[in-house]
Amino acid sequence: MHRVSAASSALHQLREALRSGLVTPRAAVEQALSRANSNAGHNVYLALDAERALRDADQLPQRFPDTAKPPLYGLPVSLKDCFDFAGFITTAGSRFYAQRNAAAVEDSAVAARLRSQGAIIVGKTHMHPLAYGITGENPDYGDCTQPCNPALLTAGSSSGAAASVQEGSAVAAIGTDTGGSIRVPAAICGLAGYRASIELATPSGEPATYSVGAGLAPSGVNLWRGAVHLAPSFDTLGWLFRDLRDAALLGAALFELDVPATAETNVRIGVVAREFLHDCDPQVFNGFMQWQERLSELGATIVPIESSYWEGALEIYAPIQASEAAAIHKPATSGDFSHFEPTIAERLTRGASLTTAEVQQFRQRHAAFREQTDALLRDHDFLILPCAPIAQLAAGADHSNTRKAILRYTTPFSLAGVPVVTAPAQGGAGVQLAAARGADARLLSYATHLGAKT
User: Which of 28, 243, 379, 451 has its CA 20 to 30 A from that of 320?
Assistant: First the structure.
């Protein structure tokens, strides 16, 4: 497990320098821009307007003239290209949409929230097409490789988000997570991550709709306004960042969470049985065990859980995801999805072929799965699980079986709709730390505590 010094994080140091005036917003953005698109494909960003970013930085002191600055004042951040940003076309990682969509006339709710908190949006980042993949491969815009190692993919679908933080063009990045699209890139790239709770938003007996967790949307704002969904039953959003010590600040700034400054330490953490980990790379398994040891040292009680039902998670998740994605991306003028790359077109075609009765059966199984996981989290403060069975994704390799292997580790928490923090470990062996739905503030407080102690 990677150990860091007890000093404040790089993000915190920059934040304090900006708030005190030792560093100007323009200087911070110039530094960020000098690092942008440094990976082999020069495709960390699908849209970047340096003059726009610098202009926004220059206007920041006039927008916030008071001594008390908003939490993200002057910090350069990146935005995944499934959220509208006024003046830019939202592509969702697909040339099909790049050629058909007009430039956004207003900011998405997320972009507006970031700007209201003083952040400077550097640009819109690379993503797996439609956010429908976990590797970061993209036939339209090129595969996203890690800035620190061109032989490795970033993972996805928040591929450019991870790359932007790794290269230092953003101190934090907005990503989305349906089946692991924040958690896996964070782990593979040696970063931290946070995906928010997702809550059922309609009463029992009515058609199911889901939203970012209750109490998370600032002042009741719909944070999916101006965003492209993949599968609303599972879609949520959050951050990729470098240091767990910044978890509380970032979560509070995006969601108006009241994160306790002092974390609980005498917590009970449920750990998956070793049988579940049979396909883990040794590096992943060792990183997982190291995190358990460290958590125990910090006062946690680690207890095994009954998680055999998790083996059915992907079987429930995949058809619901495919059905919802097909409905969203159904072509207006043709009956097929051949304008998307073949693997995604095949998934969408399968989703479109499912009957209402078939989908309903999977939704019933989904509800039962959530109930079982809710029960686990009534008995445990947190659950811990590796983010993926592998620590690296080789660029140019055959990853046709990679998605299934990874989703086995991520979809249990996607079905449960729980908040998850990715705790980084050396070489891409990150772990997922999950809390009960709606316990985001508690989770972020604990994660920040872990960052200060590890």
Answer: 379
